[in-house]
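Field reference: sequence -> structure
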Amino acid sequence: MNWGVFQALLSGASHFSTAFGRIWMSVVFVFRLLVYVVAVEDVWADEQGEFDCNTRQPGCTNVCYDHYFPVSHIRLWALQLILVTCPSLLVLMHVAYREDRERKHKEKQEKGCGRLYVDTGKKRGGLWWTYLISLIVKATVDSVFLYIFHYIYQDYSLPSVVKCTLPPCPNIVDCFIARPTEKNIFTLFMVVATVICIILNLCEIGYLVSKRCREHLIQQDQSKNVIAYLQNQERFQVNNKVNEELEMMPSIQVTPPETKLK
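Structure field:
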């Protein structure tokens, strides 16, 4: 499978990500995608061929293998990597939509002045919501797949020997999994990398929300300051007008009554 498309996708999305997002992409590319391509596919390449049962009963080995490996690790990880990188494509599509709108807007301007967006890649308005939703989807996808792995393979581990009693096996059959220790090591590695990605997604969500709340509070304070300034200016103008009216009124001189000397 050619994973170059996903590498290009992650590289393009990194331009519109925060510091947490760039770390997340590095972890996905280096510790998940690269490890999957280089090592994991080779480790599980012989899982069915070397799944050996101590019986010659036709069909017993296939039935036992299907029972203990309903879905292969490598196929689950491939599906997980595809789904977890798709939200980044949604962000790139939104940015491309903004750039297309900006281009059409410039073409309509006679002198080429005026812009719809200060920066088409800046996370404001709808793009902020798109980016936030993409983070939620990424964390949800990884969490769901962690649960699936834990549900299928208890404690994310493979035993060296499994006992199978399914028909057409004649009795209790011992089946041996090829290189269970090596597979458990890579499984634990991928699980830890997934947990790190979930934590980074949650940190980025918290960072975006807290930053937006802080900006909203600052805007409210600025609005209050502007309102207070306008009120002071209005009171100042009223006082000036009253003073001008008082100055324009004719002055009345009051002559004190004459006092008689005794």
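Note: DSSP finds six helices and three strands in the chain.
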